[in-house]
């Protein structure tokens, strides 16, 4: 609706019924009722989820039901349609019901019969105000179907409690033109449509929520194209937009397709601004960057909707504060960014990440004007990062205080994670400068100094986590050369020596990869035991794991990279495939941290790396 952080948790009154036999094509049609009783259901229901669709096959009666929403790369209009399509194959009479949930309160809800290019039930609320998040309308219908507008679905049970009235499917009445909840009544109402199917038919559930509540005053992108829910249904019925994605069912494409769920936790405004919740329940921050969050998700979206990604990456320039890049675009807002989620500490990995995102967008689209527009901001950001180097070692100083994306872990002095990202972002900036004809001599001196400091973290096997004077943390972090991954995928070449890159990746594989049977651990001690210094160090971040796995693949360690990625996905898919957490417990594989995490789509990087290597798993 218009309240993007609170998806519906209970939907009473949604049913699919084969009328000639009175059979519900659902496993538990009364799961929302207080009082339950036996109803006739299909003997077998097989479900196959492959985002953005679910395919059901039922036996006795026999139907194939494909339920989906369109996804068409390079077609933002069709990919953002407010519609769920029900495609039935079989023979019989199918009825679908759906509740009128317009308006945050039930009073004022009314159902109208619609007859036209698409018949159906239009559900509205005549008393809802535009400031109501649930202001809008819903339409349920199909071409030539019959309609029942007057179903009062929530009724007292025979003895006590409330239950759903599903007896209505035995007494459908297509003569009513309108049905509304009378003043002071406590009704819940739904609309029902039905049609005889001989082979194949399509039904549509569409919606059009054009309210302007205080927490979402922007309007929806679909408002540019349509005026009502019926408009949407007629468009979909005429054009039949589908799903134009890779249909391979190997584990990696299933991982990628089913990780696309994260884009459902997003905003797409009427003026074309797009943002994904870091998570939609706890942090509520939009387009968080750093540590392969939005920066991880946007790799996949850049392939499908490049202009959308470029627009939002460039949108950050509005909020760059004297060179400091914000952590996000705001808490349930795209206009009130937070500068470092652990204020007052400024984060020293966000600027590097943003520069790499901008250079990536240029590199993948060859949009020179885009690079020109953003170059002055890139310079401001790189200069701000250079000023963060107070000890003159060429790398922005870590000062503890949770001053990077590992915001529950202290790092001091020169950090391999921060340093690696900075080195690659500086190289990207130098490359951009040369493309645009600017002098780079001073920046190249800083790059040379930063390389020396990065190499001073080398222990012969890998780059240690950090050092500050005599203090050092000698653990092996899986993100120690994350910047090298960026440089590799952007074709910038190595910043540090190739043999050290390979050795570090092998150490990550042997130490971090073998420390847990569930996932790639963020940090391990030199002896391979899990670093338990903080929750973040002893956990796994899937978005980082998939990035590291793709880096291994790009560097020729294809089997190792696939092993790391497959292990991570096996843990996710067997436990919480559509609720990938920010962290996985390395000891037992449990869900840990923020839910429905924005970085879920980083598994795309593994798929992309294999494509670059021309390797098929």
TrEMBL record:
Superkingdom to which the source organism belongs: Archaea
Residue ranges of domain Glycosyl-hydrolase family 116 N-terminal in the record: 44-239
InterPro entries to which the protein is assigned, alphabetical: 6-hairpin_glycosidase_sf, 6hp_glycosidase-like_sf, GH116_catalytic, GH116_N, Non-lysos_glucosylceramidase
Molecular-function GO terms, alphabetical: beta-glucosidase activity
Matches recorded under Pfam families: DUF608 (PF04685), Glyco_hydr_116N (PF12215)
One GO term of the biological process aspect: carbohydrate metabolic process
Domain Glycosyl-hydrolase family 116 catalytic region span(s) in chain numbering: 272-605
Gene3D superfamilies: 1.50.10.10
Protein name: Glycosyl-hydrolase family 116 catalytic region domain-containing protein
């Amino acid at each position: 609706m218009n309240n993007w952080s609170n998806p519906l948790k209970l939907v009473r009154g949604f049913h699919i019924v084969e009328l000639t036999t009175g059979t519900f094509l659902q496993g538990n049609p009364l799961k929302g009722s207080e009082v339950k009783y036996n109803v006739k259901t299909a003997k077998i229901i097989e479900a196959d989820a492959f985002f953005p669709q679910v395919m059901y096959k039922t036996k006795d009666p026999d139907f194939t039901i494909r339920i989906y929403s369109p996804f068409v790369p390079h077609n933002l209009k069709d990919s953002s349609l407010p519609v769920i399509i029900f495609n039935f194959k079989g023979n019989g009479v199918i009825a679908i019901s759906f509740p009128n949930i317009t308006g945050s309160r039930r009073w004022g809800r009314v159902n109208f019969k619609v007859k036209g290019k698409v018949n159906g039930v239009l559900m509205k609320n005549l008393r809802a105000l535009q400031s109501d998040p649930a202001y809008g309308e819903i339409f349920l219908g199909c071409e030539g179907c019959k309609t029942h507008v007057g179903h009062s679905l929530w009724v007292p049970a025979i003895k006590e409690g409330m239950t759903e009235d599903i007896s209505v499917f035995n007494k459908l009445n297509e003569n009513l033109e309108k049905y509304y909840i009378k003043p002071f009544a406590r009704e819940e109402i739904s609309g029902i449509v039905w049609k005889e199917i001989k082979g194949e038919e399509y039904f549509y559930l569409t919606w059009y929520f054009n309210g302007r509540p205080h927490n979402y005053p922007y309007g929806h992108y679909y408002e540019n194209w349509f005026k009502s829910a019926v408009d949407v249904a007629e468009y979909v019925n005429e054009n039949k937009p589908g799903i134009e994605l890779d249909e391979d069912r190997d584990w990696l494409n299933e991982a990628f397709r089913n990780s696309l769920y994260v884009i459902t936790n997003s905003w797409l405004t009427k003026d074309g601004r797009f943002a994904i919740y870091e998570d939609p329940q706890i942090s509520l921050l939009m387009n968080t960057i750093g540590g392969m969050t939005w920066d991880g998700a946007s790799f996949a979206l850049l392939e499908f909707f490049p202009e959308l990604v470029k627009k939002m990456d460039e949108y950050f320039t509005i909020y760059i504060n004297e060179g400091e890049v914000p952590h996000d675009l705001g808490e349930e807002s795209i206009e009130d960014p937070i500068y470092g989620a652990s204020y007052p500490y400024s984060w020293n990995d966000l600027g590097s990440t943003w520069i790499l995102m901008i250079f990536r967008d240029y590199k993948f689209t060859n949009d020179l004007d885009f690079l020109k527009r953003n170059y002055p901001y890139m310079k401001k950001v790189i200069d701000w990062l250079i000023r963060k180097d107070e000890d003159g070692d060429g790398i922005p100083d870590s000062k503890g205080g949770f001053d990077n994306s590992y915001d529950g872990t202290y790092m001091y002095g020169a950090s391999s994670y921060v340093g690696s990202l900075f080195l690659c972002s500086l190289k990207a900036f130098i490359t951009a400068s040369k493309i645009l004809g600017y002098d780079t001599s001073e920046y190249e001196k800083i790059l040379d100094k930063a390389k020396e400091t990065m190499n001073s973290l080398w222990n012969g096997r890998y780059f240690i986590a950090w050092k500050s004077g005599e203090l050092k943390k000698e653990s092996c972090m899986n993100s120690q050369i994350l910047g090298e991954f960026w440089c590799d995928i952007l074709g910038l070449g190595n910043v540090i020596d190739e043999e050290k890159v390979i050795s570090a990746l092998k150490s990550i594989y042997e130490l971090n990869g073998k420390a847990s049977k569930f996932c790639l651990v963020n940090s391990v001690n030199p002896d391979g035991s899990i670093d338990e210094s903080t929750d973040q160090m002893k956990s796994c971040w899937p978005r980082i794991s998939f990035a590291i796995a793709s880096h291994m693949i790009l560097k020729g360690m294809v089997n190792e990279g696939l092993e790391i990625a497959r292990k991570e996905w096996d843990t996710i898919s067997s436990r919480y495939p559509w609720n990938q957490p920010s962290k996985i417990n390395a000891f037992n594989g449990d869900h840990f941290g923020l839910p429905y995490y924005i970085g879920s789509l980083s598994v795309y990087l593994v798929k992309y790396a294999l494509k670059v290597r021309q390797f098929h798993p």
